[in-house]
Design goal:
The protein is an all-alpha fold and about 190 residues long. About 95% of the residues lie in helices and about 0% in strands. The chain starts with a helix and ends with a helix.
Length: about 190
């Protein structure tokens, strides 16, 4: 704390003395001749240089440790930042390589999935066609069986109808030829046989 105060005080003195020295050097040409006579002594020049050296030497002495600490901390921070940047660059390079390899594998996987999907679609098509063929065959068999059943039914119905017609015709002929008494006798005989 005291060092910082002293460093600030010395800095203020240096900054305050600067304009005074500038004014001393900016003397008019007529005053320059007079100034040489007033300040012409060598002792005055030596004193100024000694004052300058003491002031900046003291300032350098007081600021040496904080400045070295500051610059060391700054150097360390820069080195740490460079280390982190290098590590981040290596990690990003590794991630980029991983992504590129995944992309390469992804195109292979996509091609494989397309081939698999095509094979599955073809197999499904074949299965559907086979199932359809079986359904058609089954429907044809059922239709054939149904047609045969209907034909038999119609045949039986036709035979039954023909038999009824023949019986009716025979009955009508027989009724004209057989008497009522003979008819009763035939019925009675059929019933007794049954």
């Amino acid at each position: 704390m005291i060092r910082n105060f002293c460093a600030t005080l010395l800095l203020g003195l240096v900054l305050g003395i600067g304009p005074v020295w500038a004014q001393e050097g900016a003397v008019a040409p007529e005053a320059e001749v007079a100034s040489e006579e007033d300040h012409g002594s060598i002792l005055d020049v030596i004193f100024r240089w000694l004052n300058f050296l003491v002031l900046f030497g003291g300032l350098g002495y007081l600021l040496r440790k904080p400045a070295s600490e500051f610059f060391e901390a700054r150097r360390q921070a820069i080195q740490d930042g460079l280390g982190r940047a290098q590590k981040a660059q290596e990690e990003s390079g590794q991630k980029l390589a991983d992504i590129e390899s995944r992309l390469a594998q992804l195109s292979v996987e996509i091609a494989k999935l397309q081939e698999d999907a095509k094979a599955v679609a073809e197999a499904e098509h074949e299965r559907i066609m086979a199932d359809g063929s079986l359904e058609v065959d089954r429907a044809m068999q059922q239709s054939t069986v149904e047609i045969e059943r209907l034909a038999r039914g119609f045949e039986l119905e036709i035979r039954s109808h023909v038999a009824d017609l023949v019986i009716k015709g025979a009955t009508e002929r027989l009724q004209g030829q057989i008497s009522e008494k003979a008819q009763r006798h035939i019925v009675h005989r059929v019933v007794s046989e049954i």
